[in-house]
Amino acid sequence: MFNRVDRFVRDIGELDCEEDLAGALAEISGDLGFHYFALTHHVDVRRSSAAIRIHNYPDGWADWFDDQGLGGVDPVHRASNIAGVGFAWSSLPDMIALTPEDRRILDLARKEGIGEGITIPAHVPGEAHGSCSFACVTGERPAGGSLPLLQLVGAFAFEAARKMARKPLAPRPVVLTDRQRECVIWTARGKSDWEIARILGISEETVGEHLRHARERYGVGKRTVLAIHALFDGTIGFLEVLRR
Amino acid sequence: MRVIVRSANAGPSSDRTLRTMFEDRKSVFVDLLKWNVPVIDGRFEIDQFDDENASYLIVAGDDGDHLGSARLLPTTRPHILDSLFRDLCASPPPTGPRVFEITRFCLSRRQGANGRRATRNLLVSGLVAHALARGIRTYVGVAEIAWLQQILAFGWECRPLGLPSRRDCGTLGALRIEIAPDTCERLAANGIWDPAAEPADPIRKAA
């Protein structure tokens, strides 16, 4: 079976959209005896535009899961966050203290047809925890010996999804020149172009140019929005604006 | 912080950087990870592969102290994957003059989270720069599977050599990493690439 996993790893290296990755995951899950897969960050996906989630769970289940805001509290996700390697859901009670609410979630999943499963944790330092899970239809049991195979499938699939998600989500950081930065700081302090020109000892036209270039770099049209963006990404600091 | 390459019988008495490297290796692999590997003089973690064929890529602080390192073994001779972990490979692992094995990837415990991340980035960048400078095309290595996601997230091209397997010290897996000129860009896209790694120092023969 290693050859099947090796082929999967090679194949997904060529893919560049989530739909294709979902197709490849559905196929290999089936080959390894699992009906469902779910590759996800452990966050409330509806509130986090950067979050990854690819799955073939029943539609009703995913909607209900989101309606309840379970991304961060799901017992499988919580157990995954403290695990180093893959684990079977049957060992959840040994990993975390299950609350009555946890047991209710697991019962509801079984009623939706999601039975026994295995979860591969995906931890990248500095990023949200994630995982890739594989589940059988309720009543069926995972094939023995599938954990090492899923360990590789989960890790490589998660990295492929991460790479796809990064492209539109991580634009290059905006960098301003020192002069542009100074002008933005004074703008944030409510100064007009004329006032900034007096303060910095340069012409009003030059200040206008600096601010125009800075707005272009952020892709914004208004000086207030420019100041907010520069504060938000740390290009200028609140203390610089408030204390000077 | 800078990258140093050492080779050939570089024992702990050679200098401060190597002495602190072998001490940190004991601290990490024996004291922390509980590996069953030899300790010399109660201070240095040194095994049979630390011989004249091994080379070391070391990130050192301004005072010369070791901050992080990896040991590189040629695959044209006995190395760890082919002598101790052959069963982690589904087929014979790649070997040859352009294939080196990364072992003892070590980050000193004498630094905080930010320092460790900076050291890790420089060490990984140094491995790539070294490979490009020396014509190494492929690295192989055995890794604890708990680290696999992080290794993949560096952005380099990585593939499994076989199925992971459970051992006393954790679940282990064998990997191959392909190095090409675009590997630097792939690391950069993941925020890993540290330009200070380039160009790699030529290998210095220790006295």
Q: What would a concise description of this structure say?
A:
The complex is a heterodimer of chains A (244) and B (207). Chain A is built from 12 helices and 5 strands. By secondary structure, chain A is an alpha+beta fold.
**Average pLDDT level of chain B:** 90
Biggest protein-protein interface? A-B, 28 and 22 residues
How much helicity do the residues of chain A have?
40-55%
CATH hierarchy class name of the largest domain in chain A: Alpha Beta
How many domains of chain B? The number is: 1
Provide structural commentary.
The complex is a heterodimer of chains A (244) and B (207). With 244 residues, chain A is of the alpha+beta class. Chain A folds into two domains: 2-169, Transcription factor LuxR-like, autoinducer-binding domain (Beta-Lactamase), CATH 3.30.450.80; 178-243, Winged helix-like DNA-binding domain superfamily/Winged helix DNA-binding domain (Arc Repressor Mutant, subunit A). Chain A is 54% helix and 11% strand. Chain A has a five-stranded antiparallel β-sheet, sandwiched between helices. In chain A, helix 8 crosses helix 10 (204-218). The longest helix of chain A has 23 residues, at 147-169. The model of chain A has no long low-confidence stretch (mean pLDDT 88). Helices cover 27% and strands 29% of the residues of chain B. Chain B contains five helices and eleven strands, in the order βαββββαβαβαβββαβ. In chain B, strands 1, 4, 5, 6, 7, 8, 9, 10 and 11 form a nine-stranded mixed β-sheet that branches. Chain B starts with a strand and ends with a strand. Mean pLDDT of chain B is 90; it is low at 203-207. The chains are: A alpha+beta (244), B alpha+beta (207). At the A-B interface, helix 1 and helix 7 of A face helix 4, strand 8 and strand 10 of B.
